[in-house]
Amino acid sequence: MRPTSSHLFLCCCLLLAIGWSLPARADVLLTAKSVSMPGVRLQAVTVSLAEDPAGGLHLQLHADRADVPAMGWRRLGLTLDGNLRRDDRLRWILDGNVQLAGAPGGALSDAQANIVLSQAANTLLVDLVQNKAHASTALPLDQPTHAQIKLDNLPAGWLQGLLGTVWSGRTTGGRVDAELALDLRDNGVQSSGQFTLDDVGFDTPSGTLAGQQLNGSGRFSLDTTNGPARMDLDASLRGGELLLGPLYASLPDHPVQIGLRASAEKGALELSRLRVTDADALQLDGALAFDAKGTLKTLKLDRLHASFPAAYQRYGKAWLSTLGLRDMRIEGQLNGSLDLRADGPRSFAFSTDGLDLADADGRLAIAGLHGGLDWSITDDRPATTLGWRSLQFYKIPSGAAQASWQSRGGTLSLQQPLPMPLLGGQLRVGELDWRPGAAKGQRLETSLVLTGVDMAAFSKAIGWPAFPGTLAGAIPSLRWVDDRFELQGGLSASLFDGYMDITRLSLQQPFGPNPVLSGDIALKQLDLAQITSVFDFGSITGRLDGSINDLRLVGWSPVAFKASLLAGSGGRISQRAVNNLTAVGGGGIAAGLQGAVLKLFKTFGYKQIGLNCTLQGTVCQMSGLEPTDDGYTIVEGSGLPRLQVIGHQTQVDWPTLVQRLHDAINGAGPQVR
Model-level pTM? Predict the structure, then answer.
């Protein structure tokens, strides 16, 4: 860094006092195996003085190795070459070139130096210039370990040596101006002053702390003596990006005030004081701590005030994305606090007078959120109330509700049952216990009762055809275990004049990019006439029973199930439905029936219809009522003309089967391939 390099060369120049104390004469050669001064050690040192034809003396100094451990400088090569003269005020002046080999960021690899030593003023002055960078340093001769330094347009990479003594991070670009005092001690450095940043960047091996294109100014103090390195910083930053563990900031063009008190030791970093003030977006006071691997140990926010949407765009977008909530729309204000440790949360609280939020995928939307929650893993907390004007979960809308909560013994509990209007019916939440501090195992348990939910409205909400009927059922236990929701009991839907029962339902990673849904579905006595009218499949009368077991959806697309559908009590089937069933089974247009006879009838009697499909990956294993010589029976006719539909394909590509069903339902005609 510039203070380091300038201080190093000033100390080196003090060696010349040996020569300066001699009478002015040419051809003086001094060598030393090593030279040690407070905080500095030089090895294999050579100093030569020769008469300069232009006047004064030509000085050359070389050290094979220069070390300043407290500043993070080791094994540097040093060369100083210039003209040494004495002016009329008896000051020694050296003008020349200085070169450091191996310094971080190429610091002083080829710099011009002007060094002035005044015994009368008890001062050593050094000016160093390389390209656009300039450093000016003043040291008292009777205290050479103290320096007053002014830096202009300093490449941030030159600071790497000092930063390396404090933490594992590295600078990645930008420039720094500063005015500071520096004291070099045997066991470290002490420094304080003010600085200006221009497009400065930094990062760490773990990636948990980083900055990019940071601009601003501030004051600092640094002490690396007597234990962990300690730093106080008060800065005003404009623009750029900043990452502090889970806190990511895309800073605005106007000033954001940041204050911190940090300590670092053996790669671990603790921010015992962190204050951020962004007037129209975020104000917070808290603390942060990371271990040597960059893993978050503590995030404590004692005071948080967020104003949306600015707070989301600048500070919350990245963090909410890690929770699966992307491209959020948030309006309103929020106050809160948080205590998060490596093993999970210890406490949180928030309150709002009005907050609207929604994600772009329609998985979660809340309008008019008001009230708050208050939870602690150890302490009992006062009761709170949280309500909303409307709530939408996975595109299923519900109406206004208000819930009472209280935290006791680490469990946040609903104080009384919560009724919620839902699609013409009601969802009633019974007992609900949530353990936010549970790192694994059971985190939540509740019971639910659904009554009178309109199936047509439900179907429309999730993009299905408009099914008639109502949805009702009781879920005696719904649990959140590890990363999945598990349904104990079942749901029953009154559907197509029959019933659909859903059991063993679980939802894993509900807010992740690829939620995993699994369960079993049983169908009982569904009216086929109503089903086929909804799907425009062709007319079939009779009653349908069936099951879809071991159902597994990933990202809401089926990857496995065992489906069995049976209409075993007979009925009638239209010519179009015959054609569509034939296409689904991969048979001919009139498989099992003469085409000429088929054209004479619009409907046919059947004894039973059966179709089975076992999906594994992208292949569906097909079967029907019973095997035949060349396939399997899908429709067994009854009466005359005798109808029999045979499926010939036992293995069907799943996308192909889906396309066949789509064509059949939408009246595109059977497409067999």
Answer: 0.75
